[in-house]
C-alpha cells in the first residue's frame, strides 16, 4: 500500500480517462473541487483501440469538452484527430490524471470511499465511474475461438494482405473491417447472424452493399460460425453447413462493460439480459451514496445508447449535485 496516497482525501475520484471522465475532471476543476482521474490504460484508451483509419459518425463539435474547439480537416473527424484533441485538452487544463493504474477495489470507510489500485490507495468523498465498454468482447462461444487467428479487435488492414478473412458482424465495425481488409488485398467473407446488414454509417453501407452485390466480398446472412480450426472455419447457413479455408476470423460482435466491477462495488444491476445499473437520471447517483455513473456504462448491455455527444452532460449533472449537497451541509 502506498500510504502517502491516503494523506489526501479528494472531493472526487474519477475512474476512467475517456472523454466523459475528462469532462468530469474539467467540471470538478471548474467548481474548485479536488479531484483525481485514474485510468487503467492510456489516455482515452477506448479511442486509442479503435481501428487505425476509423472515422467518427459525429461531427467534431459534438465531441468537444471543456469549451475547447475541436477542428477537423473533414466533416467527420478521425481517430488520429480525436487522440490529438483529447491530449491537448488534458494539457491545456493540466488535468490530474494517473494513467496505467487500474482500480481494483472500492469500499466505504468512515463516510468516505477507499479505492485500491494497482499502484496505491486513495480516499474520496465522491466517486465517478466513467469506464467504457471496450475491454470485454462479446464472445462467439464456439470451439476454436481461443485460437490466435480469432481476433475481437481490428486495427490495421495491411496485416491481412493476401489472407482469407472471415468477418463476423452486421454493424459499423464489421463493415469497416470487411471493406478495409478487402481493399488491402484480403479474400473477405462476411458472416451476418441477421437477415440483413445492421446500423452502418450512411457513407459506408452502400459501398459494402455494392461489394457484396458484385461478389467482391462474399456474404452469408442468417448465418453463424459454428467452429474454428487452424486452416478452416465452419459456417451454418440456411442452406446447411459450409466449410471454408481460412487464415483469420475477425469477430466484430461488440463489447460489454465490466459488470463484475460494478457488482463488486455494490451497484445494483437489473437481472435481465440488459443489466441496467441503478442510478438517478437527474443526478447520476447510484444506489450507493456519493457514487455516480457517467457515459456509456449507464446503458448496461445497450452500449449504443450513450455516446460522447449525449453523455457529456453527465459530468455537469454530477458536479452540480455534489455542489448542491455540499451547500446543504
Key structural traits:
FAD/NAD-bd_sf, FAD/NAD(P)-binding domain, 329 residues, single chain, seven-stranded mixed β-sheet, alpha/beta, five-stranded parallel β-sheet, 17 strands, 24% strand, Ferredoxin-NADP_redctase_2, oxidoreductase, Bdr, elongated, oxidoreductase activity
Offer a concise description of the structure.
The protein has about 325 residues and is α/β, with parallel strands linked by helices. Helix content is about 25%, strand content about 25%. Helix 1 packs parallel to helix 7.
Describe the 3D structure.
- The protein is of the alpha/beta class and 329 residues long.
- It has 2 domains: 3-136 and 255-328, 3-Layer(bba) Sandwich (FAD/NAD(P)-binding domain); 139-251, FAD/NAD(P)-binding domain, CATH 3.50.50.
- Helices cover 24% and strands 24% of the residues.
- The strands form 4 sheets. Strands 1, 2, 3, 4, 5, 6 and 17 form a 7-stranded mixed beta sheet that branches. A 5-stranded parallel beta sheet has the order 8-15-9-10-11, covered by helices on one side. Strands 12-13-14 form a 3-stranded antiparallel beta sheet, with no helix packed on it.
- Helix 1 (19-30) packs parallel to helix 7 (308-328).
- It is elongated and about 70 Å long.
- The mean pLDDT is 93.
- Keywords: Flavoprotein, Oxidoreductase.
- InterPro entries: Bdr (IPR023856), FAD/NAD-bd_sf (IPR036188), Ferredoxin-NADP_redctase_2 (IPR050097).
- One of its GO terms (molecular function) is oxidoreductase activity.
Amino acid at each position: 500500500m502506498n500510504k502517502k496516497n491516503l494523506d489526501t482525501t479528494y472531493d472526487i475520484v474519477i475512474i476512467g480517462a475517456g472523454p466523459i471522465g475528462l469532462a468530469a475532471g474539467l467540471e470538478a476543476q471548474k467548481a474548485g473541487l479536488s479531484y483525481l482521474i485514474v485510468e487503467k490504460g492510456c489516455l482515452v484508451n477506448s479511442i486509442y483501440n479503435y481501428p487505425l483509419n476509423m472515422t467518427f459518425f459525429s461531427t467534431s463539435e459534438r465531441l468537444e469538452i471543456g469549451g475547447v474547439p475541436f477542428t477537423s480537416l473533414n466533416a467527420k473527424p478521425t481517430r488520429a484527430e480525436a487522440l490529438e484533441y483529447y491530449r491537448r485538452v488534458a494539457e491545456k487544463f493540466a488535468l490530474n490524471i494517473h494513467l496505467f493504474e487500474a482500480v481494483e477495489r472500492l469500499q466505504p470507510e468512515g463516510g468516505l470511499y477507499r479505492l485500491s489500485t494497482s499502484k496505491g490507495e486513495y480516499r474520496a468523498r465522491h466517486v465517478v465511474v466513467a469506464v467504457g465498454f471496450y475491454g470485454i468482447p462479446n464472445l462467439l462461444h464456439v470451439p476454436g475461438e481461443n485460437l490466435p487467428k480469432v481476433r475481437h479487435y481490428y486495427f490495421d488492414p495491411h496485416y491481412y494482405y493476401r489472407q482469407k478473412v472471415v468477418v463476423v458482424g452486421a454493424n459499423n465495425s464489421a463493415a469497416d473491417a470487411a471493406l478495409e481488409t478487402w481493399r488491402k488485398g484480403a479474400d473477405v467473407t462476411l458472416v451476418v447472424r441477421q437477415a440483413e446488414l445492421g446500423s452502418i454509417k450512411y457513407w459506408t453501407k452502400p459501398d459494402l452493399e455494392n461489394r457484396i452485390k458484385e461478389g467482391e466480398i462474399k456474404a452469408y446472412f442468417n448465418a453463424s460460425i459454428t467452429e474454428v480450426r487452424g486452416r478452416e472455419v465452419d459456417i451454418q447457413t440456411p442452406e446447411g453447413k459450409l466449410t471454408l479455408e481460412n487464415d483469420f476470423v475477425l469477430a466484430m460482435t461488440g463489447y460489454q462493460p465490466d459488470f463484475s466491477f460494478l457488482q463488486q462495488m455494490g451497484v445494483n444491476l437489473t437481472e435481465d439480459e440488459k443489466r441496467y445499473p441503478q442510478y438517478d437520471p437527474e443526478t447520476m447517483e447510484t444506489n450507493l451514496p456519493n457514487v455516480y455513473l457517467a457515459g456509456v456504462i449507464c446503458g448496461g448491455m445497450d452500449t449504443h445508447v450513450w455516446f460522447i455527444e449525449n453523455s457529456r452532460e453527465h459530468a455537469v449533472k454530477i458536479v452540480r449535485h455534489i455542489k448542491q449537497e455540499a451547500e446543504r451541509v
